[in-house]
């Protein structure tokens, strides 16, 4: 990548806001999950944003993570025997992970850009993608998730209801409150002042 000098003014303000979004506690939880999901062979990063970025930068750990969420025999990302050393190969490996994560069900808005990880531009976005992936894995509950299910929130799922014909017909007899009501206050039994006196 191109060498960049220090950021000044508004660029520095924007970058510092992005860096403040990075969550160290979330990093610990994600590292625990990745190690539980992939095994101890992936190692552990040095603590901190930079250590986390260096650990994930070549795309191998991410590829192993997404492959572990699928049943044996189906691996969406091909992992080379030796970790890639060339920049474009590492970025290609990250791109393969992103494609596999999207195929798994992570929505496009939750997926980080390759440069967010590779150049450490937005490591909070990387955390968001991994959180979305973990939440989907817990929600699917297909036996491929390893780790504590409380680390991630379950996604809302469709709860389809079935009604019988008689239940549907019964619903037509009820007047919805949006249409007004035939119960409640009325003028029956009310009188206004004295009745009119008719004298003959």
From TrEMBL:
Domain Calponin-homology (CH) positions: 24-137
Lineage: Eukaryota, Metazoa, Chordata, Craniata, Vertebrata
Species per Swiss-Prot/TrEMBL record: Bombycilla garrulus (Bohemian waxwing)
Main location: cytoplasm
Primary gene name: Tagln
Family: Belongs to the calponin family.
Alphabetized UniProt keyword annotations: Acetylation, Cytoplasm, Muscle protein
InterPro entries: Calponin-like, Calponin_repeat, CH_dom, CH_dom_sf, SM22_calponin
One matching Pfam family: Calponin
Protein name: Transgelin
């Amino acid at each position: 990548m191109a060498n960049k000098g220090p950021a000044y003014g508004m660029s520095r303000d924007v970058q510092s806001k992005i860096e403040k979004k990075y969550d160290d506690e979330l990093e610990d939880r994600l590292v625990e999950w990745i190690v539980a999901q992939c095994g101890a062979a992936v190692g552990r990063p040095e603590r901190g944003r930079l250590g986390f970025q260096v650990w994930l930068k070549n795309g191998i750990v991410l590829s192993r993570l997404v492959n572990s969420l699928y049943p044996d025999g189906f691996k969406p990302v091909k992992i080379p025997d030796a970790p890639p050393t060339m920049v474009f190969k590492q970025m290609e490996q990250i791109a393969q992970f992103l494609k596999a994560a999207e195929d798994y069900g992570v929505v496009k808005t939750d997926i980080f850009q390759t440069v967010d990880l590779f150049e450490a531009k937005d490591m909070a976005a990387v955390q968001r993608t991994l959180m979305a992936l973990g939440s989907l894995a817990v929600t699917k509950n297909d036996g491929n998730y390893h780790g504590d299910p409380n680390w991630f929130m379950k996604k809302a799922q469709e709860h389809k209801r079935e009604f019988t014909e008689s239940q549907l017909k019964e619903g037509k007899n009820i007047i919805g409150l949006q249409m007004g009501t035939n119960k409640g206050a009325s003028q029956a039994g009310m009188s206004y002042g004295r009745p009119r006196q008719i004298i003959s």
